[in-house]
Amino acid sequence: MVFSRLFGRKSSLDQVRAAVRDNRWADALRIGETIDPQGLAAAEQAELERLVTESGDCLARLNLEEGEAFRRAGDEAKGREHLELALMQARDGQLRQRIEETLGKESAAVLPAAPAFASAHCGSGGCGGGAGLAPAAVDLEDLDEETRFELTLSSYPAELAQRYQAIDPEFRKAFLAAHEGHDAEAVELYALVAEEARDDLFFFERGSLLARCGDFSGARRDLNLALQMNSAHEQALEALITQELSQGGFDEAKKQALRGLETGTARAFCLGRLAFIHAREGDAEQALGFARQALQAGRPELDVLLLAASLHERRGELGEAEALLSATGGGGCKGGSSAYLGEFWLRHGRHLDKALDAFNQAARQEPDNPRWALRIGETYLARGWKKEGQALIEQALAHPDLPLELKESGRKLISLT
C-alpha cells in the first residue's frame, strides 16, 4: 500500500486516480461516488466512469472471494454478508451474474443494483463519452457503520483487515471518521481512545492522519511507536519512510529502509526507496542495483520500474530499458503501448507510428495536459511533418502548465525548424 493520502489535499478526481493506483478500491469508490460529473469535462467524466467501475468490480471480486471462503469454512452468515456487499459493488454484468448465482436468486433479487453510468462503456457498446454518471443507487453515507467499516477494510491486505475486526469501538469511530474525510473530528475521536486500546494499529492510523493534517512531528512519533510495538508492520514502515522522504529526511528514510531489509519488512518497498535515495545522491550503480532487486522482490511499482529503465538507458542498455517500459502497458479501451514507451521510442527514433498512437491515447485520457501536444508535435517533426509539428509545439509552449524543462526542449525544437 502506498500512502499518497499522507500528503496535501488534491482535487477529488486526483484522489480517485491515486486511490486506484494504490489499489485502495474502497477509497476510490467512496470518493468517486461523491463527485458531481456535471462539473467535469467530457474526458474527465469518461475517466471517472472507468475508475469507479474498476474500483467497484475489484471490491466486488474481493468480497466474492471472501464470501466463498467463509461459506467453505461453514460461516454462512459471514459469507452472505460479503456476497451481498459484492453485489452492491459490482458493475460488470457477468460478474453480477456470478455473484447472484453464488448468493442465490431469492436473496439477490432484493438487493439494489450498483450505480449505472449513462455514458457508453467499454464492451459491446464500445468506448465513448456521455452525459456523465447517473445518481448512485447506494449512498455510502446512509449505510450502517458495520457496512462502511467492511467497505473501508476491503482495500487493506486480508491479514491486516482481520486484525481490525477486533479493535476498540472508540477506535473504530475515529478510524471511520478519518477514512471518510472528517479529519478534525477524527483527531478528536482518537484522543478519546483508551490507553489500553492503543496498539500498533492505532498509532499507524493516527500517525497517517496526523501526517495528512500537517503534524509531521506527531506523525513521526506515532509511526515510530507503531513500529516499536510491531516491527513487522509493513504499512507503518512504508508510511514513515514516505513521510521522511516528503520532508527531505533522506538519511532517516535510508536508515528506516535498511532496518526494513534487516527485519524482512516491506522488502520491495524499502529496496525501491533506497534506489531513489541513491539516485538522488548520484550513485547510479547502487541505485540500479536496488531498483533491480525491488523489481524482483514483488509486484513492480511504476516509479521504480521507470527509474530502472532510465538508469539502463543512461548506460546505453537500450534493450533492457525498452523491455522494462514495455511492462508499463497502455491505457484506454484498446490497450496499446504506454506513453512512457512512446517517449523512449521518440528519443531514439524508433517505431514512430506506435509512439504517435501512444501519445494520442494519452491526450485522449488527459486532454488538458500540454505534455502530449508537445510529444505529438515532436513526433510530427520526426516524421517530417514540419508545419503541423511546429503548430502543436507552439500550442504546448503557450500552455501555462507545461513544465519548465519541457518548455526548454520545445523552444529548442522550434529554433531548429
What does this structure look like?
It is built from 23 helices and no strands. Mean pLDDT is 82; it is low at 1-10 and 105-139. The chain has helices spanning 12-21, 25-32, 42-72, 76-89, 93-103, 105-108, 145-153, 158-164, 169-179, 183-191, 200-212, 216-229, 234-246, 250-263, 267-280, 284-297, 302-314, 318-326, 339-347, 352-365, 370-382, 386-397, 404-416. With 417 residues, it is mainly alpha-helical.
What is the element layout, followed by pairings?
Blueprint: H1 12-21, H2 25-32, H3 42-72, H4 76-89, H5 93-103, H6 105-108, H7 145-153, H8 158-164, H9 169-179, H10 183-191, H11 200-212, H12 216-229, H13 234-246, H14 250-263, H15 267-280, H16 284-297, H17 302-314, H18 318-326, H19 339-347, H20 352-365, H21 370-382, H22 386-397, H23 404-416
Helix pairs in contact: 1-2, 1-3, 2-3, 3-4, 4-5, 9-10, 10-11, 11-12, 11-13, 12-13, 13-14, 14-15, 15-16, 16-17, 17-18, 19-20, 20-21, 21-22, 22-23
Question: How would you concisely characterize the structure shown here?
Answer:
With about 425 residues, the protein is an all-alpha fold. The chain is built from 23 helices and no strands.
Number of strands: 0
Terminal Cα span? 46 Å
Mean pLDDT over all positions: 82
Rg over CA atoms, rounded to whole Å, is: 23 Å
SSE series: HHHHHHHHHHHHHHHHHHHHHHH
Described by strand count, sense and barrel closure, the largest sheet is: none
Shape: globular
Annotation field: number of helices = 23
Strand composition percent = under 5%
